[in-house]
Amino acid sequence: MKEEGNKAGLLSYVFLVFLAGIASTIFVLFKYRNISLLGVGLFGALIFASDNLSAPLPKTGSVSVNFGISLASLIIFGPATGMLVTAISIINVKEIIKRVPYYKHLFNAGQYLISFAAVSFFFENFYDRSQTNFFYARNIWIIFLVTYIFFIMNTLLTSGAISLSTGSNLINIWIFNFAWIVPFQFFLSAIAIAIAFLYIRFSPFTIIFTSVPLIIIQYTYLLRHKERRTILASIIQIVKIIEAKDVYTAGHSVRVADYSELIARGMRLNEYDIETLRNLANLHDIGKIQIDLAILNKTTKLTDRDWTEIKKHPVVSYEIVKQIDFLKDRATSILYHHEKVDGTGYPFGKKSEEIPVFAKILCVADSYDAMTTDRPYRRALTKEETIVELENNKDKQFDPQICDIMIDIIKQMPAKA
Ligand SMILES: [Fe+2]
Does this model's pTM top 0.85? Predict the structure, then answer.
């Protein structure tokens, strides 16, 4: 019921934002009317190129320079042209190809149009167009101010949508997803000033010189993002190959990543942490690569020597993952994923306060997956049995709070057919 309530709330919010976006666009076009076709054509083409080269953020919007371009068209041609250029930015071919759900398109369009309409209105009322000096101090201040007004409106509206769909705290979402882009806004204002100044002072052709560096910057960001994705995808593929050879753990790491994400959402962690945790979960057992397959696939009781071998895998996993630049800071979570809060785990016998929270989450998710898959010596546990098992090991193996969150998740899971 809660889920449905959230979904209905989210859809109402999306439609409201979209309608408000359309209404505010019509308002700006009717109020200011003066449209430059050259401006719409030139800046529209530039924003179209820029928009389709933006680097995606974790599960949310994008970092793109297109506001800088819209703002430049607002400075040069006025609100009506700026508004039309902004409307062109709604057409994102990449997202259409990726078949992004329609309500995301509506929302992105709506929030962007509202924010830009508000900024246009404010700008036109305070920007002094009678000034012949382009660098007239008040006008420059207004350009910086509207950039930040746009940024705050745009990101707060998006945080509202994420908050409605995930149930996470709005401010928490804003801080972790958007606070880091605050300095980038200064750069956007500077871009707008440069484009507008060169255009007005020299010629429309200067747009070629200002847009090329912009597109190169966007493209570099995009390449870095793609490179990161490719590295992860290749390593995860290796994990799948390792798991395919171990008949009992096929698909284990992917499931541990899913359970870890559910726990992290239950703990209201932010999207960055959730993405990092998922990556760590996917790689937590990669160290098994060096364990003899005969040991991994053994159906008889493991000897002490077998255990000595198995217990090395968190260290090997850690050694591999700490080489990955964007995961190295959290790699100890993998090193400690078999530690228990009472200090009886391996490889070091660390106690609760010494174990990072991500390691504690991985431990619960990992154990839950082990309980719910068939093993040579026992069948998978039932829903009720896993709850009893988790309860019995709370404060021994598992962190009590994380354990309780996992129990809540299990209770909400549908019974298996
Ligand atoms: Fe493990």
Answer: no
